[in-house]
Specification:
4-stranded antiparallel beta sheet; 534 residues; mainly beta; 17-stranded mixed beta sheet; 48% strand
């Protein structure tokens, strides 16, 4: 019982203390306040706009009137999220109330609608450049800061500019060209008035350097070397002094067609340039997919003529006029015709050389245009002239080049008559063609001897003395005398019928004269001696 009494007494004492304490606390005042917002639309939904003490208020609970205790705090949200890419930013608090609240009053917050604008670029340029890609409101942005976003008040403007070209960081002769802008705007550079959230994207085209080159041509090359068409652009014709030719940066995927001239002329006589291997690559009609240089390779060629000298003396292989490449080693042969012997090779220019100019078969190195001449010498043949009888032949023995025609003339000695040639020619002149060693004989015949006519003796008293009988001179035997040191076996001269015919009148006259003399002598023998008296 004592314990229960003690507990009850303690409880009563506690109640007394609490009642006394409550009688000592003074009551705190409350204030009536109003909160108003402008600018926020239903897009904010249930998102918190205002916080008073521990209570939050959305856009649709404002304005609101409250009794709040002295010292209650309040806060307006600096931004209130709206729809995607939209927010409402606190732009002004009129200061009707201060926090914490110490008096009644009204506080108004003004919000401005803002939109989220993002600036970006295509992945090709972002992945390969450290240069400035876009400038927004004067601030340069590189690939590392893209996409770059700003909140822009509705109806306000933002200034931007996409770079025209952006260099590659990883590859030379590669860059990126601004092509189009998509999203909120389509311009490369603009002052954009913002009325909605969105993205402004610069779309870049990869570009590669395109060049055309040549090898093998020199400054003498004339005319179009290559014709090039880049995409839909007009055809471009390039000449030698324009190489290497840089078409600059060309969009990736552009079709490139070209034609190298197969044979390019030269201002140098007898020279040209021919398209050779390796073939130009990539082949015409390719789609540009990287920095590219297309090279046409040319080989110098020369006009070379082969001749045999003198004409008709022989032949060459190769024959005629041909085109040969520079520095080529050419196997050549010379073939003499009958009556000729190969002499040597020669050229009218120092740019053509021979490994052995004295050989029928040789190698010629072609270093320029010119004429290769195979020289042939005519064979030398001996003419031997003989004479039978007394006479001469001009010209006499001698040596003559092949195919020389020698004119021979026979001249008989006194008392001798030309009878003919061993080649059956009968005239005093004949010809010999020196196609080989030749021998010819001129025949001469001695003229027949005639008996002289006696002078008549005047009649006298002296008995006539019989005239002596004339004794004919025995003709000497014709002698064959060669004009050359060599002489064929002696032969008995023969008198042809034609030669005999020309002596018949003379013979007849001799016979008649002999008969007359014989008659006179016979008469004289029978005549009596007559003595003349003085």
């Amino acid at each position: 019982m004592k314990k229960l009494q003690i507990i009850i007494i303690a409880f009563l004492i506690s109640l007394s203390i609490c009642a006394f304490a409550s009688m000592q606390v003074k009551a705190e005042p409350q204030y009536q306040v109003s909160f108003i917002q402008t600018g926020i639309s239903s897009d904010a939904g249930t998102n918190t706009v205002l916080t008073v003490g521990e209570e939050t208020y959305a856009w649709n609970t404002l304005p609101t009137n409250l009794w709040v205790d002295n010292g209650t705090t309040f806060t307006w949200s600096s931004t209130v999220v709206g729809n995607s890419g939209e927010q409402f930013a606190l732009s002004r608090d009129d200061g009707g109330l201060t926090s914490p609240i110490t008096a009644s009053g009204k506080d108004t917050a003004t919000y401005t609608t803002q939109y989220h604008v993002t600036f970006d670029a295509s992945s090709n340029v972002k992945g390969d450049s450290s240069a400035t890609i876009v400038t927004v409101n004067g601030v340069s942005e590189t690939a590392t800061s893209l996409p770059y976003s700003v909140w822009v008040d509705s109806g306000s403007s933002v200034t931007y500019n996409f770079a025209s070209s952006v260099a590659s960081s990883s590859a030379t002769n590669t860059r990126y060209r601004w092509g189009t802008t998509s999203g909120l705007d389509t311009s490369q550079s603009d002052i954009l008035t913002v009325t909605v959230a969105g993205t402004v994207t610069g779309n870049y085209v990869t570009q590669y350097d395109l060049q055309f080159a040549q090898s093998g041509l020199d400054s003498s090359a004339q005319g179009t070397v290559v014709s090039v068409t880049v995409g839909t652009n007009p055809e471009v014709n390039l000449v030698q002094n324009q190489f290497p030719y840089d078409f600059g940066y060309v969009d990736q995927g552009t079709t490139i067609t070209y034609t190298f001239t197969s044979t390019v002329g030269s201002s140098n006589s007898g020279e040209q340039f021919v398209l050779t291997t390796p073939a130009a690559t990539p082949a015409s009609g390719f789609s540009l997919d990287g920095s590219t240089t297309v090279t046409g390779t040319y080989q110098t060629q020369f006009l070379v003529t082969f001749v045999a000298s003198p004409s008709g003396s022989g032949s060459t292989s190769p024959v005629g006029t041909n085109i040969w490449e520079n520095a080529v080693s050419l196997f050549i042969t010379a073939t003499p015709n009958t009556g000729y012997t190969f002499s040597s090779w020669s050229s009218n220019t120092q740019s053509i050389t021979f490994n052995n100019a004295d050989s029928v078969s040789a190698t010629a190195t072609i270093g320029g245009p010119g004429t290769l001449t195979a020289a042939f010498a005519p064979n030398i043949y001996t003419l031997t002239v003989y004479t039978n009888g007394q006479g001469s032949v001009t010209p006499g023995n001698g040596t003559y080049p092949y195919d020389t025609v020698v004119n021979l003339t026979a001249t008989s000695a006194d008392g001798w008559t030309f009878g003919g040639w061993s080649n059956e020619a009968t005239g005093l002149t004949t010809t010999v063609n020196m196609s080989a060693d030749q021998t010819i004989t001129a025949d001469f015949m001695q003229n027949p001897q005639t008996t002289p006519t006696p002078t008549p003796t005047p009649t006298s008293t002296v008995s006539p003395t019989p005239a002596p009988t004339p004794t004919p001179t025995t003709p000497s035997t014709p002698t064959s005398t060669p004009t050359a040191t060599a002489k064929p076996p002696a032969t008995t001269p023969t008198l042809s019928l034609a030669a005999m015919g020309q002596f018949l009148p003379l013979i007849a006259a001799v016979i008649i004269l002999g008969a007359i003399i014989t008659g006179l002598l016979f008469q004289r023998r029978k005549r009596p001696n007559i003595i003349v008296l003085s």
